[in-house]
Write a structure and sequence with these properties.
It is a single chain. The strands form 3 sheets. The chain has a 6-stranded antiparallel barrel. The longest helix has 19 residues. It is built from 8 helices and 10 strands. The chain is elongated and about 70 Å long. It folds into 2 domains: about 60 residues, no CATH class; about 120 residues, Beta Barrel (Elongation Factor Tu (Ef-tu), domain 3).
């Protein structure tokens, strides 16, 4: 199934950041999917919300079978007392910004392009759970993350420079996504080494903001080789985060 770029909570936070004071969520039930575009306009936009100004994207469709369009809204607006504004396609570097393009970048580990299109670093949030403490053995203790939403898109496997927010404080860190092939891991792990941080935070929530892919996941011949690579990864992460922190 299609993975989310933003959870409901993240979307609400973004709207709050831009000054939106009221957010109405309508559950997409089977019954709601049968509402025609005309009924959506009259029963929801007009009767329930009292819409006066409606702003939609250039490719927005609504109503049963996606029959509703900007043209239909524009045609009906004057009769029901609301104006309609269409946001045109947004191009960056001659590429149309779309969720498809952003997903493609994230799935390929191209964090910088994804962030450029999003206008901010791509976020992941989750609760800290217990791991096997391999990172601690290597000298790079990590917080293992259980994502808040398992419907959220996770970028390509690899090592990333990230910022980590915990209780309103932000730190630098390096994040690992992968199956830990050096120790023959079989399950995907998401774990972050937080720089200049030494607290017990099991059960607490961390917000991760992706800044740069440092390298793809690799299998090393032994743990000592992995440790030496982690030393290089930390140097690269600190360099990538220098302008941010």
């Amino acid at each position: 199934s299609l993975k989310l770029l933003n959870t409901v909570e993240e979307k609400a936070d973004l709207r709050r950041k831009f000054g939106v004071q009221h957010l109405i969520r309508i559950p997409f039930t089977k019954e709601f999917s049968q509402v025609t575009s005309v009924d959506f306009i009259t029963q929801i936009l007009v009767d329930r919300i009292g819409t006066r100004k409606l702003v939609i994207g250039y490719d927005h469709r609504f109503g049963k079978n996606r029959e509703g369009s900007f043209e239909q809204l524009k045609l009906n607006g004057p009769a029901f007392g609301f104006d309609v504004e269409e946001i045109s396609r947004q191009d960056i570097d001659h590429v149309g910004v779309s969720s498809t393009q952003i997903r493609k970048a994230l799935e390929g580990g191209d964090i910088e392009t994804a962030n450029h299109f999003l206008g901010e670093p791509y976020p992941l949030s989750g609760r800290v759970i217990k791991g096997d403490k391999l990172g601690r053995v290597l000298g790079y203790p990590t917080a293992n993350i259980d994502l808040d939403s398992h419907d959220k898109l996770v970028p390509a496997e690899g090592i990333y420079a990230v910022t980590v927010t915990h209780e309103n404080s932000t730190y630098g860190g390096m994040l690992y996504i992968g199956n830990r092939p050096t120790v023959d891991g079989s399950k995907r792990s998401i774990e972050v080494n937080i720089f200049n941080f030494d607290k017990e935070i099991y059960g607490e929530t961390l917000k991760l903001s992706f800044q740069k892919l440092l390298r793809s996941d690799s299998k090393f011949s032994d743990l000592e080789s992995l440790k030496k690579q982690l030393e290089k990864d930390k140097v690269a992460a600190l360099q990538a985060l220098k302008a941010i922190l």
